[in-house]
């Protein structure tokens, strides 16, 4: 097996393992075994560390997402003051990526975890730099501007939770359709429209009243 083939096998195994077990809980030895490697040092040889391997996994989807999100951001910027095109900018790329197959679905589950744990993770900035290169944080910043009437902490929480919810909903639906085909799932068009409506509602709801306690 060539070095490049080995590296790709490790990336594929890591993609599944990180999605299923978590980026910091997945066993590097099990990833090595699933990749068909006997050398326990294969991960460190090819990637340097767990984080280096995670970066390689994420980088596989960057080009597709950067272009897709970029096009939708341009549309959103042409409609200032509207939330709907910004919701499109994070829902539609996720749906399109999930439709590409298991790698896209795993990527979404990984990113949903990373977004949810960003404030408490020990992972290096390089991991989040890859996510930033998809331009999702630009969407988040524009949402923050649109929600300027909300308190800053509420804006940040609402934006983070809504994007994370959408990403995970798309990924889990795609996985569920494979794991549980007996369930009557919504068709793609209805699911996407409903997800957009839910996200818009989450972002648009009135600010909570201050606690009186």
Structure write-up:
The protein is mostly helical. The protein folds into 2 domains: 3-53, Arc Repressor Mutant, subunit A; 61-204. The protein has helices spanning 3-21, 28-34, 42-47, 50-59, 62-77, 84-98, 102-116, 125-132, 136-146, 152-179, 188-204. The model has no long low-confidence stretch (mean pLDDT 92).
What attributes characterize this protein structure?
2 domains, 213 residues, mainly alpha, Arc Repressor Mutant, subunit A
Number of strands: 0
Question: Rg from C-alpha positions?
Answer: 19 Å
Provide the structure class.
Answer: mainly alpha
**What's the helical proportion of residues?**
over 70%
Overall pLDDT, averaged? 92
Following the backbone from N to C, one meets helices and strands in this order, namely HHHHHHHHHHH
The DSSP helix count reads: 11
Strand content: under 5%
The major sheet is characterized as:
none
Write down the overall geometry. Answer: globular
Low-confidence stretches: none
Number of domains: 2
End-to-end C-alpha gap: 65 Å
Short description:
The protein is mostly helical.
Helix-strand layout with pairing:
Layout: H1 3-21, H2 28-34, H3 42-47, H4 50-59, H5 62-77, H6 84-98, H7 102-116, H8 125-132, H9 136-146, H10 152-179, H11 188-204
């Amino acid at each position: 097996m060539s070095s490049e083939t080995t590296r790709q096998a490790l990336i594929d195994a890591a993609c599944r393992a990180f999605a299923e077990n978590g980026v910091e809980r997945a066993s590097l030895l099990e990833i090595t075994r699933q990749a068909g490697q006997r050398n326990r040092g294969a991960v460190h040889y090819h990637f340097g560390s767990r984080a280096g391997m995670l970066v390689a996994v994420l980088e596989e989807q960057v080009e597709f997402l950067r272009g897709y999100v970029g096009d939708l951001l341009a549309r959103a910027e042409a409609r200032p003051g509207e939330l709907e095109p910004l919701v499109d900018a994070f829902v539609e790329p996720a749906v399109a990526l999930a439709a590409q197959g298991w790698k896209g679905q795993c990527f979404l589950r990984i990113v949903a975890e990373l977004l949810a744990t960003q404030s408490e993770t020990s992972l290096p900035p390089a991991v989040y730099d890859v996510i930033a290169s998809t331009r999702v944080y630009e969407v988040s910043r524009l949402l923050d501007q649109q929600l300027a009437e909300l308190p800053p902490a509420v804006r940040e929480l609402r934006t983070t939770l809504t994007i994370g919810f959408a990403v995970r909903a798309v990924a889990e639906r795609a996985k569920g359709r494979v794991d549980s085909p007996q369930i009557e799932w919504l068709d793609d068009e209805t699911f996407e429209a409903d997800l957009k409506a839910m996200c818009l509602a989450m972002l648009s709801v009135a600010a909570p009243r201050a606690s009186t306690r």
